[in-house]
Amino acid sequence: MSLMIHIYAIKYTQSNLFIPQLLLRRLAYTLSYPQGSIHTSTTSMMNNKQIIEGLYQNMFERNISKVLPVLDEHIKIWVPKSLPFGGEFLGREGFIAMVSKLNQIWEDLKVLYLHYYLPETTGTDHVLVHGKLEGKVFQAEESYTFHFISQWLLKENRIIEHSVFFEDTSELLQYINNHTNSSNHLLNGL
After folding, report:
1. What is the pTM of this model?
2. Which residues contact 34 (CB under 8 A, 6 or more apart)?
């Protein structure tokens, strides 16, 4: 396991990524989870970034019992509907359904890095995460690497909304379709 910490106090925007028009302070933590884990405090005084860091850690360690308590019981989740694991998901049951869909597609999914973006103004309950994942679908021999942006909204230490955006959704979909028998999500004219 490796942990590299890069801290920047700059305003960050990049034209080729979807980032809402917020002034952001970049607190970038590059994590590699496959060899072990990084433990974060589980006290009730956790800040929003720590909550999201813990969520990703527990997700990739497949520890759903530690993920569910930080999710609001009425959480709203949006993943591009064009993907076989996409859709709108409601509540903790919806979160479990989304994770189940992911596990039906991906045999091996690893975090290459995660960067956390926090608003410059205090009191804002948004956390943006730019990450890079590598994985392969069950029928594929080669793996695929892709970038994503996740937007998290928290209220009173609970996650109430989550939206995911992919750098190139059509390329990701093409990789999945080339290696699965998914006729429901064929590229339409691409």
Report:
1. 0.70
2. 1, 110, 111
